[in-house]
């Protein structure tokens, strides 16, 4: 993962300085560059990664994203919950893949919640995975008046800890939340 992370960061920095690409063009170019390098140089070792890359424009409140085989992010809106589309295959499997981006408008009060597969795969002593239904419920019952990215991630971590108890971790777990502050 450190190789992918380094390549993605370097490519984002380099390509954003070299060009004035729109976010959709930049994200696509970065994914293609890293994908082709990994497939060509490490394809025999089956090194691949699922990747979510997003570019958020605070002024317009638009987020352009590319989801290369990663878990589908949740978007909690004031009146419903939706999941973002997967826009392509994981990076590093096949050379010359095409990657697609999507752009969405985030509204005040929206919460974007990202997670790795360690979340649904978190197992208790009986071997039962946590799944996604508990996450959906936590998102839907969140108190909107006190909701922050930090409180949401802390709540999810607490609930997973209760589920797994003292069981050794089955997989690593990473969570990320973006909350668009409600207008006063």
At a glance:
The protein is α+β, with helices and mostly antiparallel strands and 184 residues long. Helix content is 34%, strand content 18%.
What is this structure's SSE topology?
Elements: H1 2-18, H2 23-42, E1 51-57, E2 62-68, E3 74-76, E4 81-83, E5 102-105, E6 111-115, H3 133-141, H4 149-164, E7 175-179
Antiparallel strand pairs: 1-2, 2-5, 3-4, 3-6, 6-7
Description:
By secondary structure, the chain is an alpha+beta fold. The protein has helices at 2-18, 23-42, 133-141, 149-164, and strands at 51-57, 62-68, 74-76, 81-83, 102-105, 111-115, 175-179. Strands 4-3-6-7 form a 4-stranded antiparallel beta sheet, with helices on one face. Helix 1 (2-18) crosses helix 2.
Distance between the termini: 40 Å
Q: Helices and strands, in N-to-C order?
A: HHEEEEEEHHE
Structural class: alpha+beta
DSSP strand tally: 7
**Main beta sheet: strand number and arrangement?**
4 strands, antiparallel
Features:
3-stranded antiparallel beta sheet; 34% helix; alpha+beta; 4-stranded antiparallel beta sheet; 184 residues
